Fold each of these.
Amino acid sequence: MRIETDRLLLRPWKESDAESLYTIAKDPHIGPLAGWLPHANKDDSRQIIKGILTAPEIYCITLKGEGEIIGSVGLHFDEESVIGLADNDAEIGYWIAYQHWGNGYATEAVSALVDRAFSELHIQNLWCRYLPRNKKSKRVSEKLGFSFHHVAKERYWKELDQVVSERVSKLEIETWRKKKKAAK
């Protein structure tokens, strides 16, 4: 499955993306804000691709026409999420390479996947988690209509080996429909 936007192509991750992933995921600006440690080497990135990023509905974000990998966006279902999702719910996660922050790419990619989740996958509610210090993720979720739901306090994040609190936001299908209708 491929998803195209005005500036981006979202496509499945491939093992051959390991070197490109490592180049951007080793940056300490990204992982700790997104809830994971910077990648240690290309093999680490390859294992992340094989074990996590090749799951259904997880996409590599590339610049259309150039093919440059600039991030990742994906949906997580049931046991893949720590929120405790209902049957027709999903959690959305995303990150963008540091050098591409501030260009609206995260909002564009997440918006495309939100549209797919509601219109094609028939999801009823989308959830988004982020660390309180991650102001950029908060802003992306707000632009797309997610509203604050609760703070999940003091949960152990295995990926960071830390106990952290996180903000949880929610977007309901009816809110998305109203926003789409108003934009026409």
Amino acid sequence: MKGKIIGIIILIIIAGGLFIPIGSSSNSGTDSSVAVTYGETTYNNNNYKSMVDQYFENNGNINLNKAKETVITASDVNKISSDISQRTYNSNQIFSCAMVDLSSKNNLDIDVDSSITTVTPSMYKSALESAGITKGHVIVTSPVTATGESALAGVMKGYETATGQVIPEKVKDAANNEIYTQSEVVNNSNVSADDVAKVMQEAKEEVAKANTTDSQTIINIVNNIASNNNIQISNNDINNIANSIQETQSVQDQASQYKEQLSNFVNSGKAQNIFDQIMNTIQSFLSQNR
């Protein structure tokens, strides 16, 4: 009898338009806390997009049929990189993609595919925490090898799309600057990405405790942390890390506001996945008809 009831409910759900096949790009009626951002090169190539979608579904253990989709263009990336790394990208160079899942109340969890060659999970985590993001499951991938630097813009856009709350521009700029700074230090030295992220994270914590934006004080903190961890970083890279932390520290009031908005969203129950809602409805129906 219960099997018949479930079958009837599923038919009602399908007939009511709540069922959309996997891979559909439709965003109508989205009620999910899952957001996917595609690099425009990937999005415009059906094979690449299919590869990325499959990766997200397999590694996120989730269906994308109700995910909110956004495309990150070369123009979007250049608005960031032109002020930070002075690099410019063409529309055929934006491959990195990201998925944000806020259906869990767990702390920030980041998975990065091996196709991402430069930016590591710890680097993304450090930059996202600077923006007040401490919740959610983030997956970053690319159909071809990519540095992953531009993916942070997509991750933050994913959070904005999922929550409906805009991250302040200065906060986003500071987080993006942090990723680019760490990437440059890795590229300019023999220091591993995780060691650079370690120095950045520990230095940010010390700066926050000291509640300072004084440049020389921050340089001294970065120097001490690198020395204490026996991590050899050039003076120029030390200064660049310190400048990035100074920018991050100067926007912490705004980052804290977004952190509170994100927490409220996750804890409100709005972040519940659509399929969880359907199953809860079914379970409630069954409990009333035992």
Amino acid sequence: MADNLKTALNTDRNVKKRSWIKAKDYIVRFWPLYVMLLPLLVYLFIFNYYPMFGLQLAFKDWYIRKGIWGSPWATTDGTLDLFKYFNQLFSTSMFGEKLINTLRISFLKMLFGFPAPIILVLALNELSSLKFAKFVQSISYIPHFLSWVVLGGIFLSLDKSEIFQSFMTALTGGNVHFFSNDDLYIGFLVFSDIYKEVGWGTIIYLASLMNIDPQLYEAAALDGAGRFKKIWYITLPGLVPAISINAILTLSNVMYAGFDQIYNTYNDVLSGKGETLEMYLFRLGVTGGDYSISTAIGLFNSVVGCILVIITNFVTKAMGGDGIW
């Protein structure tokens, strides 16, 4: 038995040694690629991981002179109270209102925005003219490369345009101002988000279509399947892996209703339904200087997003789909 154990240990050491030699060989052979990867790792550490140390502000009474590390842990009446700012946050009616606003906007974007690139890619796939399909695809990409600063200015100018208002009067019987009405503003957020990202969202689905065997369509045609049956039984099942991964990533951002978009089109008239948790965080932290409670909001958003990713990944795999791990 001792000999068997010794043999097993030696085998394990040999396997580890071979793995290390193999890894070292890969590093030597592909060192230019690893050097190219280095700036990305540095970027991720500086802008994604190092700032995570600042999350401790949610549990501290922050003083600007003492900084993050020197500030004391949060206390209430001289007693240690690490969840002081979370209790303050959850006890205010403002938090509940902003949370509802965030979820309302996020779920409406998911309801209408998530299927939009799928519908577009199905339509592009059914076009008989390849040149026209590529032209439409290229045109749909353009808004993605425009920042919300530019698009926000365009939409704000359009809202004040006499030509646009004349068109809306002829269409609806009156002027339509998206930036002075809560309900219209939410509709604008959903529409403009689709307009900006629908083309870019088709990329991953178009890549998935390339993996579908063309012989499946030929076989279906021989069996008498029409266009819609081919879409339902061949194209959509081929897109399921990409759809499941996109669904997980989309749900991870449910607490982030689009800060850039809202910040560049928001005004105080829209505070009833238009101010999300991120805007509330910005107003408390950047404008108001209350960094502890704003950090608590940010940490809350991140925890909820992480939980949703785990749940969605589990449900997706349980239903036979592909998860992200």
Amino acid sequence: MRSLIDIVDFTPAELDELIATACDIMEHPADYAERCRGKKLATLFFEPSTRTRLSFEAAMLELGGSVIGFSEANSSSAAKGESIADTAKTISCYADIIAMRHPKEGAPLVAAMNASVPVINAGDGGHCHPTQTLADLLTIYREKGRLSNLTVGFCGDLKFGRTVHSLIGALSRYTGIKVVLISPEELKLPSYVKKEVLQKSGIPYEQTTDLSAVMPALDILYMTRVQRERFFNEEDYLRLKDSYILEPRKLQNAKEDLCIMHPLPRVNEISVAVDDDPRACYFKQVLNGKYMRMALILKLLEEATV
């Protein structure tokens, strides 16, 4: 039995397999409509979510399975003080697979160590978000036709941005990747990610506060919101929240085939005027996320994939 806690739990070959399965599902949905008949997914969301939770639920339903779970900690026995370990053991009696989001880093790992069914990390604090990374990888692959030889710019909250940490970890295992880190000084990528991922993998990277200066070099621009829920100080949040706002005029020097991505939800870091630009791919990411989660559920439940 396997779980997915961190994107590096899967080899590049396995990621390629998931992408191939997701693409096949997109092309032949009827072939997958009954693959999980009789199986139950438990969505244990101790933190608010729209896309991730509903994406998991839609994925399981489109595979013919069913869904149980909760969408906030207050509606679970966690409000009574139940431990993550006991919750995982309990839910394993009811479901065949678990998707968990939790504000504390490491909580899904604790669940996986105690559950008797596969556990999927649907986001744990500021640590990582591997299924968003699966959506990101499929989006890059479908837009660029490759996952190598790309210059990828990450812009905004790189300190607390778990989607950024996960995607950097995944891309670091492909060849010809260059990373550009664009953020205020206070929200720079954590040193442990730079040391343990970028430097360890020999990935060239640069840090800057100037998005316009690096825009012409980018193949991918991954925008992120400044996350109010990760700040201890409201004044710091208010000071930094509008550090980068992507508007059409800022794309004048960008490549014609630039891929603009965002894990969503956005606040105001991408102007709605950018939505009509053919380079805007963030809503494609949402749809791609459902197909990649379908592929992941099939893999972890050891159902047939391509």
